[in-house]
Design a protein that fits this description.
Keywords: Flavoprotein, FMN. The chain is an alpha/beta fold. The protein is built from 8 helices and 7 strands. The strands form 2 sheets. Strands 2-1-3-6-7 form a 5-stranded parallel sheet, sandwiched between helices. Strands 4-5 form a two-stranded antiparallel sheet.
Length: about 240
């Protein structure tokens, strides 16, 4: 099983997103999957110009000659896509959105109706549809902040969103492993991330038991907010 993971954080390996992504992918790898991580911040991906040449003049090929050409090959070979992005203004980062826009050449221009929904068919249909996993974090308490992001991926993946790991209070993630108290407090969360990776590979979904741990707030919202606002002079939660 091939997994293509996209880290859409402008901070790449140094961001909070990587703190969540790494143990999840470790679990996938332990379950036998082949992993490739793409750091979009290091790629040259131009904005989609909306010319539709990839549908009309050069079907399946974009007019832009950049890194996206090679990335589309990797996308077409993946069994599971992992979209990892911090929450920027309640949606994906700009570089992740550029990547998503530039996947247009993978679709045909025709509009088709499937059930009660409309969309563009894939240029190459696969016997087993590609599954997707969404991983995100935000600086706010409250999982409602992810509502727009989650709906986007539900629609985009056409019912093939295998899992969503949405971490609130993300501002703390970078400090956890350097603070013994926090590391102990969050150890169930990181174990659940690895377990979720194994479950996605072995079962195609995340179990309710694992999801409940991933959804849990390990610090109450008021304490987190006060620390984030600088009311704790030591800068510790």
């Amino acid at each position: 099983m091939n997994i293509l993971a996209l880290n859409g954080s402008p901070r790449g390996k140094n961001g909070n997103t990587e703190v969540i992504l790494e143990p999840f992918l470790r679990g996938c790898e332990k379950a036998g999957a082949a992993i490739e991580i793409i750091y979009l911040a290091k790629k040259n991906i131009k904005h989609c110009s909306g010319c539709f040449s990839c549908w009309t003049k050069t079907p399946g090929k974009c007019v832009h000659q950049d890194d996206m050409e090679d990335l589309l090959v990797k996308v077409s070979e993946a069994d599971i896509m992992v979209y990892a992005t911090p929450l920027y203004y309640f949606t994906v980062t700009g570089i992740m959105k550029d990547f998503m826009d530039r996947m247009l050449p993978l679709n045909n221009k025709e509009i088709v109706k499937v059930g009660e929904k409309y969309g563009h068919p894939k240029r190459v249909e696969r016997e087993i549809p590609v599954k997707s996993v969404l991983i995100s974090n935000c600086g706010f308490p409250g999982d409602y902040n992810f509502s727009g992001l989650l709906e986007t991926f539900k629609v985009m993946t056409k019912g093939n969103l295998a899992g969503a790991i949405l971490c609130t209070q993300g501002g703390i993630l970078q400090t956890i492993h350097s603070n013994a108290m926090l590391e102990k407090l969050y150890s169930p969360f990181f174990l659940a991330l690895e377990t979720a990776g194994k479950e996605i590979v072995n079962q195609g979904t995340i179990t309710d038991a694992t999801q409940n741990i991933l959804n849990k707030d390990f610090i109450d919202s008021e304490t987190y907010m006060n620390a984030a606002n600088g009311e704790n002079r030591k800068g510790e939660l």
